[in-house]
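ok so i was messing around last nite and threw this chain in just to see what happens. nothing serious, just curious
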Amino acid sequence: MAENEYDVVIVGYGGAGAAAAIEAADAGGSVLVIEKFGDGGGTTRMAGGNIRSVLDAEKMIDHFHALCDGTTDRESVVAHVEGLARLPDWIERRGGLMRSDPSEKLGAPRKSGPPYPGATPGTGFPGVVGADGIGLRYRWPKNPRNGLSRGAAAWAMLAENVGSRKIDVITETAVKRLNRDGFSGRVTGLVAEQGGKEIEVRAKQGIVLSSGGFSWNPELMRQWLGVAVHSAAPPHRNTGEGIVMAQAVGAALWHMSGVVMSMGIAVPEYEATFSFHIKERGFIMVDRLGKRFCDESKLAGHSGGLLLDGRDHHAALRRRLPSYVIFDEATRLAGPIIATERGFNTDAGWSEDNSMPIEKGWITSASSIAELAAKLDLPADALAETIDSYNRGIETGADPFGRGAANAAPIEKGPFYGVAVWPTLYNTQGGPRRTARGEIVDPWGAPIPGLFGAGELGSIFNTLYPGGVNYGEAFVSGRVAGAAALGATPK
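result:
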């Protein structure tokens, strides 16, 4: 069994792991990063790459702390906001480009009209204390040097900085367990599998777990979310090993039911879902009984998927799994019904007029509502009545679910279309509980010596997600954990 020794060993090579490695190396430590796949980046590389700026730190702290519903200590929220305030300078000093998004202007009203799901400028919870302390989102513009934007540009910057330092990175290596000294309780290293053989690595100062959440682990989803759902994240990367390994050495868990979950379209040819993002107003969403259940114009991009998990607790059925989006020819021609510029499946070739997914059978088409209902296995009479009721609501201004006429258009001219939509995880929040310094703690709140956490593996956020914060948290918590492992603070 081979043996290697480093000051800091980092498990997981996404945004949090890369930030931790950079910070630990800059603090003078010898650093090893271990990644189970053949390349790094994970969710960081395929995401939109939004980082929240700080307009008023105290108000922002109040807001985030309130959204955590008492599950996160205020000190951790303070550390996060302080880290966000320093983050743009840290990124720019390392070659990253960022710009603020004017559509996120403080106090701007929620955009009316398409696309749906929508986003609320500033925060998803403008009525919660401290909301006016939330600053604009920073986005990653196209980098003229490499032509990359969004998450791809962010990851390129991180990878370049890791590569320019004396940081060892080994890929296609799966960590199996942590080693802990039986006398002191200190985590001293780990055992991993590489090429079918076990290797043992010793960490003199600390291990940083930054291996992501469990959005590709159906068993953990069933245990903590109640149902296994689809994921838009890179397939099979976030499978929860960090959670299990931390539990094995006595870690407490937090925020296990917290998720960022929208709506997605699942097709046989792709494991990850396509994010639902419709461009015109002429559509409705119905359950398996062919009935509407919400104002579709108010679907939220980071939590809309939670609505689809509504369960009939008398019949013990989930009548909205799947739900169906019904639309007409005008909406079909208005633009793709998915987000084509981000996500894992950007190479699918989804056409602007949705003709390709129709040809492939991903979207069902029919000349009449009755024919569409039959193809989707929905009750024809119920679906026809639902659409008639929706159209009458537009005419009378009295939609049964309060959908305003400005955000609706009649479904009347065929062909007609339908597609199944499912709850779709962008990421989970739960994992080992950590302190403001990134120390993973036991059930009594005592730090486990030598063990640190970063990123979505134990995010400070719980079930109320304000939008645009997990990405920044990967950078901030990674920097904190990487430095803390060496007894330092981020530079």
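not much to say yet. The mean pLDDT is 92.
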